[in-house]
Amino acid sequence: KPKTALPNVTTLEEADTNQFAQDIIQGLSGNPKTLSSKYFYDGTGSRLFQQIMDLPEYYLTRTETEIFTRQQEAITKAFCAPGSFDLVDLGSGDAAKTKILLRALVNQAVDFTYVPIDISLDAVQELQLSLADELPGLKVAPLTGDYFEALQQLQTQSTNRKVLLFLGSNIGNFSYPEIRNFLKNLRQYFVAGDQLLIGFDLKKDPRVIRSAYDDQAGITAEFNFNLLRRINQTFNGNFNLNHFKHFAEYNPVSGEMKSFLVSTHNQEVTLHDLDFNFKLSAWEAIHTESSFKFSESQIKELAQEANLQTEYVYTDSQEYFADVLFRV
Ligand code: AVI
Fold it and tell me: What InterPro entries does its record include (predicted)?
């Protein structure tokens, strides 16, 4: 990808190809085999995810949009303490949901700066253009790259109070130890009075959850396959996509929604540029993603462990999803 940026986008590190290579070799050498879902999001992957968010089965985006649409006043009021603040949006993407809150804040003439942070430079640039068009008065200071590097960068350029958004159940793509670690790391960038609004997908009818990750149109399967396509392209590999099946399984005890690519044949795959080859047995699975679902008590427990105060829990009419506001 070209390393170009709009003049006022601060570019941190490009997705690190060495790290990608290392993670792939490690994941495919292990037992069970794994690939990290953080590598889903190249250009094609991000476009497929946009399509997923519009699928009838994928309730997450719609329910969080409902929360923001119906409760925008309460949510934005809860952000506003005296003085200006930075509204930091981790993994902003196209910010479709955040824009509901941004519009409400702009309409209330609140003094704040919007700081979208995304790993994808393309996404941040597109967002910046669309915001200039849709909310011309808004102050925007985007950052791209790794979340924590971006937060570090933000420390050097602003001393404003922070309200951090981590929406869309992105937190569900972390394991519990990763969530604990993430919240602990975040705390380093906060001072007393800062706030966090985190979107959690809630436990519900297991069938509703499973079909969100195994849609009729097969877009989620494509999204999963795209990871193999990306590896083929990046490292001159020969994954044969016709020799895999997408499979998604939900465990209602652990709340873990797991996605796999299952090998339909005994096969050998070579990633030429990495001088790496490995074998897959027939029906051996590669675990590609976990999307955890939470109960309210699990959320409160995580908050307590991270020493965060739970201020409000906003839910949709079906209680499918919760946006929880925490205070440091
Ligand atoms: C980005 N993340 C919250 C999505 C999820 O629901 O875990 C990614 C996704 N995977 C399959 N469908 C959507």
Answer: EgtD, EgtD_Methyltrsf_superfamily, MeTrfase_dom, MeTrfase_EgtD-like, SAM-dependent_MTases_sf
